[in-house]
Amino acid sequence: MLLMRTLPAAAIAAAVLTLASGSFNGPLSAPVQVQVPALHRELAVTAAPNNVQAAVLRGWGPVKAGDEFSYTGAPNPRKWKVYDGAGHAGKGIRSPKAWNVANGVATVSGNAYGATGGMAAKFAQQKYGRWETRMRTSVRDPKYHPVLLLWPNGNSSPNCAEVDYGESLTDTTLIKFALHYACAGLQSYQTRAERKIDTTQWHNYAVQWTSTSITGYIDGALWFTDTNRAHVPPVGMHQTLQLDWFPTGKPTKPSWMQVDWVRVYK
């Protein structure tokens, strides 16, 4: 049974540091469920303190770019390109009107008819680096999928590269990591991991991308790594934030996703 009590921030940080010291042995084959120790049970149900971050615990240094959403209205047009057009796979729409920034957070809402939103960062369009995002969702409809991802600059790469470092699909109790390293087909094309987690609580999702590996963290705890160099994206990428709609023909319950901040490190 998961414990519902709240731990002091220091105790949570100690638990995270203990978990984060784990390592993997060799490159992963794909597709595969990445086997790592479970997150500390309190971390899976309790809103993570703002300072329980991979960047803080691992000493990533000063923030190089990002958005704290410390303003009101539409997302900052100097920082974000807000989607305006058809939704995921041509279903529904992605509308700028789905976004609102207020009280220090950016909220994207999806209505009953698939009108939702997404946006792509104009900052930190780079090859390699570290990204961390603080995110939560409503008690959402399974047809609405929140996702934090790195997407190729120019919207294409020779191997369909994509790094989904915080993605929740039909099973609303799970958060997933998916590293796409080849275009979908008969051959393996991605490595994955998943965790049971309460996405209605604030959690800090992070990814570290180097020339030799991709590593993922939740609240500072390591939960994914792939050290196969052939799987590392070959092109520069940038952050996107999306609440995607996957209709099934049944009524959709309005849902939302909130982002407290996005931070990029060297």
Helix content range? under 10%
Q: Which runs of at least 5 residues are low in confidence (pLDDT < 50)?
A: 1-43
By oligomeric state, this entry counts as single chain
How are helices and strands ordered from N to C? HHEEEEEEEEEEEEEEEEE
Largest sheet: 9 strands, mixed
Mean model confidence by pLDDT = 86
Report strand %.
35-45%
Overall structural class, as computed from helix and strand content, comes to: mainly beta
Number of helices: 2
Net shape: globular
Give a verbal description of the structure.
The chain has two helices and 17 strands. Strands 2, 3, 4, 7, 9, 10, 11, 12 and 16 form a nine-stranded mixed β-sheet that branches. Strands 1, 5, 6, 8, 13, 14, 15 and 17 form an eight-stranded antiparallel β-sheet that branches. 44% of the residues are buried. With 266 residues, the protein is mainly beta. The protein is globular, with a radius of gyration of 17 Å.
List keywords for this structure.
266 residues, mainly beta, 9-stranded mixed β-sheet, 8-stranded antiparallel β-sheet, 2 helices, 17 strands, disordered N terminus
Brief write-up:
This protein has 266 residues and is mostly beta strands. It is 6% helix and 39% strand.
Helix and strand layout, with pairings?
Elements lengths: L8 H12 L33 H4 L7 E3 L12 E3 L2 E2 L6 E2 L4 E4 L2 E6 L4 E7 L7 E9 L6 E9 L9 E6 L6 E7 L9 E7 L6 E7 L4 E5 L2 E6 L10 E9 L9 E11 L1
Parallel strand pairs: 4-7
Antiparallel strand pairs: 1-17, 2-7, 3-4, 5-6, 6-17, 7-16, 8-13, 8-17, 9-10, 9-16, 10-11, 11-12, 13-14, 14-15
